[in-house]
Amino acid sequence: MKKILAYALIAILSFSLLAGCSKSADEKKIVIGATPTPHGEILKIVKDVLAEEGYELEIKEFTEYAQLNPALDSGDLEANYFQHQPYLDSYNKENNGKLVSIAAIHYEPLGLYPGKAASLEELQDGAQIAVPNDTTNEARALLLLETIGLIKIDPDAGLEATVMDIIENPKNLVIVEIEAAQLARSLSDVEMAVINGNYALQAGLNAATDALAKEEQDSLAAETYANVVAVREGDENNKKLLALVDALKSDKVREFIADKYQGAVVVMD
To answer: Is the peptide bond before 38 cis (omega within 30 degrees of 0)?
Structure first.
């Protein structure tokens, strides 16, 4: 009987130690989801910075950004890094989500890139311009087109503008709504396309050097569409997630972004 009790005690202690070790490991491991470019590339540098602080960063890359918020909502991720606040707000509204931003890290200027037409002057009556088909990015694209005088949007539409809100279109442009990830591939079929920064980078395009027009650093868009780190509501003050934010804002990461992307990704001050 004494031996049985001793073995039982040893088993309980061993389980307690293992549970304690597991909890400790969980407190030092961060699972984050991101799109490959530029977010996944930036996170590889963040991983090195966090390692110096004793944290392990596991990066899960998603090629379709529509999958990232559901993965965070379901608990498969502890954070994600790919979206701007209007997209996050739209997701929460449409899915009864409870995701929150804990930091704005950078913005990627949306750009208008040449396709069959090489310049704005070459745009003919009835020319096709492709834009992202998701609500927030379509509005953003249309506002960029308005900024350069191609169209005028109903001012009441704001960040939910669609093609139905175009009130002036002097060139009778045909706005073609395409899934964001396919926009760069559409350039050979349309006169121009407004492309998200991450997908432009994946296609070898840089808004600072290749775009005919882009969102400027001092624009409202830069602030409105800054890319954020999102977490589940209640995790805003989680120590390891705050360490993740500090790493993303570190000098090492800022220098990497400046050197790597040459203006296609701009760090928020």
So the answer is: yes
